[in-house]
């Protein structure tokens, strides 16, 4: 390693550790929409700028180690910031903030023609603990002169083992992105169809118990599943879709600013909501409900739910320029 490289590495470590490199609290404390929606989080911007400069002035093996360390800390910083935003504003804001910046990270590190995989060495002390317990139980053999000497067995069996682990920063970004998208999809589905999902869980529990215990009791006879109660649940779910979906889609547009990304991310949410109404129809069909009960429940068809989602989506649509290339689709299907 040359003196120049050592100087660069020393300066890099100094900046990372002493300048609050991986902190962006001032951005989080701001109430300006531009700070959360329009700009890159300072940690992400600094990391990418630093890596782009190091890429041109250090050898590849050195860059691989530095990039792995920088990306790991950057991902942790983004996750901490997302949690802080969730606490301060809403879980939707926190999840979209994290998705946005993980997409940026994944896109911006793609041009680096290096392998982001490094080998980490660690010591496994699990055998030491087991051997120590064995030594306590064999105290009478501590000074034995034979091969069954407890202290000798402890030294032989309690030696920590060296473990090798391959760490791939690019795959870690993909993993965190997939987890963030799945968390957003699950949370948004619950926001839009929470009352219906709760009823479906109770209904499925009753049906499973009904199959285990023979009897003539039907779902329609249960107080929580009367037709008028289901009708109120359906109306409440439809109201949530009309009121909450435009808000969620506006947030998606503010953070992601890419129609294709928004469409890909919203598609599984739409499918989940439609599937929940299909599941309700199946429960009603086998729950002993009369034709009058079905009219009172007012469960919409999948086509009607799709129209409702589409009309509610139009209310939250506005013109946002496309600025971020997305890979959400491949992440959701891996």
TrEMBL record:
Residue stretches making up the Conserved oligomeric Golgi complex subunit 3 C-terminal domain: 32-128
Name of one Pfam family that matches: COG3_C
InterPro entries to which the protein is assigned, alphabetical: COG3_C (IPR048685), COG_su3 (IPR007265)
Tree of life domain: Eukaryota
GO biological process, one term: Golgi organization
GO cellular component terms, A-Z: cis-Golgi network; Golgi transport complex; membrane
Name this protein carries in UniProt: Conserved oligomeric Golgi complex subunit 3 C-terminal domain-containing protein
Organism this protein belongs to: Cryptotermes secundus
Lineage start: Eukaryota, Metazoa, Ecdysozoa, Arthropoda, Hexapoda
């Amino acid at each position: 390693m040359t003196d120049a490289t050592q100087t660069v590495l020393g300066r890099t470590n100094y900046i990372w550790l002493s300048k609050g490199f991986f902190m962006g609290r001032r951005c989080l404390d701001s109430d300006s929409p531009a700070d959360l929606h329009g700009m890159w989080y300072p940690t992400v911007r600094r990391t990418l700028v630093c890596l782009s400069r190091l890429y041109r002035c250090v050898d590849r093996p050195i860059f691989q180690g530095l990039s792995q360390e920088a990306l790991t800390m950057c991902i942790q910083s983004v996750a901490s910031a997302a949690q802080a935003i969730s606490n301060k504003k809403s879980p939707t804001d926190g999840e979209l903030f994290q998705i946005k910046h993980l997409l940026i990270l994944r896109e911006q590190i793609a041009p680096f023609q290096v392998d982001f995989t490094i080998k980490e060495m660690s010591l496994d002390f699990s055998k030491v603990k087991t051997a120590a317990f064995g030594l306590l139980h064999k105290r009478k053999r501590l000074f034995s002169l034979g091969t069954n000497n407890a202290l000798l067995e402890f030294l032989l069996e309690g030696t920590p083992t060296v473990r090798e682990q391959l760490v791939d920063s690019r795959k870690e970004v993909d993993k965190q992105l997939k987890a963030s998208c799945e968390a957003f999809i699950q949370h948004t589905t619950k926001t839009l169809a929470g009352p219906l999902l709760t009823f479906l869980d109770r209904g499925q529990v009753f049906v499973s118990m009904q199959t285990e215990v023979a009897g003539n009791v039907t779902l329609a006879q249960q107080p929580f599943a009367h037709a008028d109660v289901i009708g109120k649940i359906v109306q409440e779910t439809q109201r949530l879709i009309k009121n909450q979906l435009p808000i969620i889609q506006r947030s998606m547009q503010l953070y992601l600013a890419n129609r294709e990304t928004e469409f890909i991310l919203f598609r599984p949410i739409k499918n989940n909501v439609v599937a929940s109404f299909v599941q309700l129809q199946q429960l009603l069909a086998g729950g002993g409900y009369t034709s009058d009960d079905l009219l009172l429940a007012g469960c919409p068809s999948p086509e009607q739910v799709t129209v409702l989602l589409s009309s509610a989506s139009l209310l939250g649509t506005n013109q946002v320029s496309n600025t971020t290339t997305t890979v959400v689709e491949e992440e959701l299907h891996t």
